[in-house]
């Protein structure tokens, strides 16, 4: 499984405005554990195209419009909106069942 988090590069926290995020932290998950992660810049790509290119299954973010959430849902990407704090901690919460979609 692959997860992405909208990423604020200076702080390492979840970037709060999904539609304007320039970076994402991409996580490879196996057996409900983080295997590896990397920070990737969008380079101006459309959000859905970018996430599909990386074969993302789930997305953690702060604010997300209902239009964007519907578009990502149509691409098979589950959105976990309303998140804040450090990205790695948020992913661990999701894997531990403390964040529901």
Description:
With 101 residues, the chain is of the alpha/beta class. The protein has three helices and six strands. Strand 5 (58-60), helix 2 (66-74) and strand 6 form a beta-alpha-beta unit. Helices cover 25% and strands 32% of the residues. Strands 1, 2, 3, 4, 5 and 6 form a six-stranded mixed beta sheet that branches.
Q: How many DSSP-defined strands?
A: 6
Query: How many helix segments?
Result: 3
First-residue to last-residue Cα separation: 15 Å
For the CA atoms, what is the radius of gyration? 12 Å
Order of SSEs = EEEEHEHEH
- Helix/sheet category: alpha/beta
Q: Residue ranges: pLDDT <50 for 5 or more in a row?
A: none
Question: How do you describe this structure in short?
Answer:
The chain has 101 residues and is of the alpha/beta class. It contains 3 helices and 6 strands; from the N terminus they run ββββαβαβα. The two termini are 15 Å apart.
Can you lay out the helices and strands and say which pair or pack?
Layout: E1 2-8, E2 13-14, E3 23-30, E4 33-41, H1 47-53, E5 58-60, H2 66-74, E6 78-80, H3 87-95
Parallel strand pairs: 1-5, 5-6
Antiparallel strand pairs: 1-2, 1-3, 3-4
Descriptive labels:
3 helices; 6-stranded mixed sheet; 32% strand; 101 residues; alpha/beta
């Amino acid at each position: 499984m692959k997860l992405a988090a909208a990423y604020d590069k200076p702080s390492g926290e979840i970037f709060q405005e999904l539609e304007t995020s320039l970076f994402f932290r991409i996580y490879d998950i196996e057996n409900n554990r983080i295997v590896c992660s990397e920070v990737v810049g969008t380079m101006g790509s459309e959000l859905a195209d970018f996430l599909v290119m990386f074969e993302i299954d789930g997305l953690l973010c702060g604010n997300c419009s209902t239009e964007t959430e519907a578009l990502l849902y149509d691409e098979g990407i589950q959105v976990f909106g309303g998140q804040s704090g450090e990205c790695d901690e948020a992913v661990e919460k999701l894997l531990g069942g403390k964040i529901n979609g």
